[in-house]
Amino acid sequence: MTVQELAKEPISNIPLQYVQENQEPAMPTDGDGTSSLPTVPVVDLNSLIVRETKDSELERLHGVCKEWGMFQLVNHGVSISLAEKLKSEVKNFYKIPLEERMSYKIRPAEFEGYG
C-alpha cells in the first residue's frame, strides 16, 4: 500500500510495513519523564494586516518559516465550505492520469504548477 493510497481514507492503525521495530520513540520528554510535544506555530493573518501589529507579526512569521517551515494560519477568512471544495478538487486532480497532470508541471522560471 502506497502513501497516496493511505491518504485516500482515514486510517486508525499504522500499516506494519511502515513500523520499524526496536527503536526508541522519537518523543521528547521533560525532566520528570512526561512527554510534551511541540505545537505547530499559529499565525494570525489579521495581525499581518493591522498596522500596529504588522511589523512584529511579519518578524514572527519569518522566524516561524525559518525554524518550522510550516504554520497554522488563523483569521484568514476562508470558509469551511470553500476549504472542503478545494480538498475535493485536489482529490479529483490526483484521479486524472499522471501524463495529464504533468501538463500542469512547473516550468523553468515559473513559480506555479504541479510537482
UniProtKB/TrEMBL annotation:
Q: Which UniProt keywords apply?
A: Iron, Metal-binding
The UniProt record lists the Non-haem dioxygenase N-terminal domain at 40-115
Q: One GO MF term, please?
A: metal ion binding
Q: Which SUPFAM superfamilies match?
A: Clavaminate synthase-like
Q: Which Pfam families match?
A: DIOX_N
Positions of region (Disordered) = 18-37
Q: What is this protein called?
A: Non-haem dioxygenase N-terminal domain-containing protein
